[in-house]
Write a structure and sequence with these properties.
single chain, 438 residues, disordered N terminus, binds phenylalanine, Transporter, symporter activity, SNS_sf
């Protein structure tokens, strides 16, 4: 099948926008601050950024080139490129499993975001004190009906976009709205940094305290890098299969990773100064963003407009990520099980909604899905992807996929060393150490 006969992206900006749309989401704005807050701040940030450059970027590049070379989504990709090595097809299977787990809790948090959009529009949070806002979030989060309804609404929206197909669905929205989200986060950061007592938050985020590093913290940083970049489960490989041969994959991978990390760091700058200024515990967990930012909106001019715009854009950022997750499952159902796209989407979305309901009802289920998918499934997938690109595809094919666009010889050399040795060994070491086995 040729590149043009697939439902592809129209141009380079479309590809980057869609991949960035998958990468940028609740992972940057909700998960990064909460996990960084729980893991000591600065030292976590440093390790996280190191993993993005040393492991995330090469794995993302591998996924892109595997997908584009095979012109198939993950399953078919590994089968086409290495029919005699079924081990690698487990990337596809784990990917489908990871997509189920991630989307289950992702829909819950996206639901919180929708509730907060509603609260912002109706101006319901203004005038509340920091402790009232925290109490409000806890009460909402532990309620049942509201969060359940939002999971349903969010999954219906996601399914609607996935049924529409790639070009009409994903590309159109991300191009305009993601840059807008960036602008709002920058404005929020400026406001947050100018709050009284902001200094402590900046120090928390940017002054690494290496005594905070433990095997567990390092594993969390690795998991966050994978989660945030959407790598390790085939999402990016599937997008790679839609990218035309003339596009430069290195450029795509670098732009997406850069944009993704930038937004995470900026989200940290918007949140941690406010966390300290308003006396919130940085390790308060998944509610951190929802307890913190309304205080910032309450203290700023035009807070109403900013809060409405911020939460709407965050819902959209969540949608462009959830669409990519559901797409993995749907592609599997369509390509491997022969279902129609519509049927596949409906079955996948409804079963994921049921898992989402479990996450609403049980914090344990929520935490289990969140922790296991990011810290176990994605890094495992990452090992296999790196090994596949490094050892199975090998230098000649990797270079061939990169060459038309200044894939410099020495760069390919470094990339091959990372893919063959550094990434698999580093991920394995972090993994075993984090689990207390090394
Ligand atoms: N990267 C997305 C985010 O940050 C989440 C995601 C993970 C999407 C894995 C696809 C695959 O919100």
């Amino acid at each position: 099948m040729s590149a043009t006969s697939r439902d592809g992206f129209t141009n380079k900006f479309g590809v980057i926008a869609a991949a960035a749309g998958s990468a940028v989401g609740l992972g940057n704005i909700w998960r990064f601050p909460y996990v960084a807050g729980e893991n000591g701040g600065g030292a976590f940030l440093l390790v996280y950024l190191l993993f993005i450059v040393m492991i995330g970027l090469p794995v993302m590049l591998s996924e892109l080139l595997i997908g584009r070379r095979a012109q198939k989504s993950v399953f078919g990709a590994f089968r086409t490129l290495a029919p005699d090595k079924p081990l690698f097809m487990s990337v596809g299977i784990m990917g489908v499993g990871a997509a189920f787990m991630i989307l289950a809790f992702y829909a819950v948090v996206a639901g919180w975001t929708m509730e907060y959009t509603y609260l912002a529009i109706t101006d319901s949070l203004s005038g509340m004190t920091p402790s009232e806002l925290s109490a409000f979030f806890s009460e909402f989060q532990s309620s049942t009906v509201g969060p359940l309804v939002w999971v349903g609404v969010f999954m219906i929206l996601t399914a609607g976009i996935v049924i529409g197909g790639v070009k009409n669905g994903i590309e159109k929205y991300t191009k305009i709205l993601m840059p807008l989200l960036l602008v709002i986060i920058i404005i929020l950061s400026i406001k947050s940094v100018s709050l009284e007592g902001a200094q402590a938050g900046l120090a928390f985020l940017f002054k690494p305290d290496f005594s905070k590093l433990s095997g567990d913290v390092i594993l969390e940083a690795l998991g966050q890098a994978f989660f945030s970049l959407s790598i390790g489960m085939g999402v990016i490989a599937t997008y790679g299969s839609y990218i035309q041969k003339k596009e430069n994959l290195i450029h795509t991978a670098v732009s997406v990773s850069f944009a993704d990390s930038l937004i995470a760091v900026l989200a940290g700058v918007a949140i941690f100064p406010a966390v300290f200024a308003f006396g919130i515990d940085p390790s308060s967990g998944p509610g951190l963003v929802f307890e913190t930012l309304p205080n910032v909106f309450n203290s700023m001019q035009g807070g109403y407009i900013f809060s409405v715009a911020f939460f709407i854009l965050l819902v959209i950022a969540a949608l462009t990520s959830s669409v990519s997750l559901l797409e993995v499952v749907v592609a599997y159902f369509v390509e491997e099980l022969g279902l129609t796209r519509k049927k596949a989407t409906i079955i996948a979305a409804s079963s994921i909604s049921v898992l989402g309901a479990f996450c609403v009802l049980s914090d344990g289920a929520f935490k289990f899905f969140d922790w296991t998918s990011s810290n176990i499934l994605l890094p495992l997938g990452g090992i296999l992807i790196a090994v596949f690109a490094g050892w199975v595809l090998g230098r000649a094919k990797v270079a061939d996929e990169l060459k038309a666009h200044g894939g410099k010889i020495y760069l390919t050399g470094i990339l091959m060393v990372i893919l063959k040795f550094i990434a698999p060994l580093a991920i394995s070491a972090v993994f075993l150490h984090g689990l207390g086995l090394l």
